[in-house]
Amino acid sequence: MPLRLLSAVLPQPRPAMTTHPYLQHGLTILHARLKTPHGSFAALTGSQPRPFITLSRETCAGATTLGKHLLPMLDANLGEDGRSWMFLDKDLLHHALNHQHLPEQLADYLPEDRLPEIKGLIGEMVGLHPPLWELEHRVAEAIHRFAELGHVIISGRAAHLITRDLPAGLHLRLIAPLESRIRRAQQKLQCDRTAAGNFITDNDQARERHVRTNFEQDINDPHAYDLVINTDRIPPETAARMVLAGLQDRVAALTPAV
């Protein structure tokens, strides 16, 4: 293989992750849960309902903003001693991969990302990582286990489909008009309108393809979710209260009567 092509598929050093306080808090919780013994895990999942949230989103529809507003509400109303809620987004997923004994950078090869799938296929050919289907399966196992443990918001990765057998989950879809999302992308990426529009289109199409290819489902199907929120019309604080109320009702329905 030509050196130029090989260098294109070799894992490149990733920039340091964002050091927002919520992310550092999430990392602390994640590391503790990854060490949970299997016996303790079985005890947890066999008692009270372990609530969790999956968060599907259009690109730049405000998932991170909602997560930051929602976490303190969840801790205050549905938290437990020693078990704070965490937001499992793309950064934390790299660490979750470690739990499956996979290098963090393999997240860069998973189909939901914007990188062309051919890059991942070439990576298989030269032995950089296991087949993509195996990566998907092992990441899905990690996501399912975190959902079983509860007290987690899982963003993306078709988590609403992976965890649909677990009754204590509330499944959200965040949407917003394209123009609003382009403005958010311009602010986030510090780019012009054309580049922001391309960024959104590439990401949305990749996520749609990921769900269609791996689950034969339409990511935009509203029937797959418990709640669809237009973040251009519903402020983050209001949306967070709506989500909390929905999850409280779900937990109450599943809690055995005393």
Short structural summary:
The chain has 258 residues and is an alpha/beta fold.
Describe the model:
With 258 residues, the chain is of the alpha/beta class. The protein has one domain (21-35, 48-251): 3-Layer(aba) Sandwich (Rossmann fold). It is built from 11 helices and 5 strands; from the N terminus they run H-H-H-E-H-E-H-H-H-E-H-E-H-H-E-H. The chain has helices at 3-9, 21-34, 38-45, 63-78, 90-99, 117-125, 132-149, 159-162, 178-189, 193-215, 236-254, and strands at 52-57, 86-88, 152-155, 169-175, 227-230. It has a 5-stranded parallel β-sheet, sandwiched between helices. Helix 2 packs parallel to helix 5 and helix 9 crosses helix 10 (193-215). It is globular, with a radius of gyration of 19 Å. Mean pLDDT is 75; it is low at 1-20, 37-45 and 113-130.
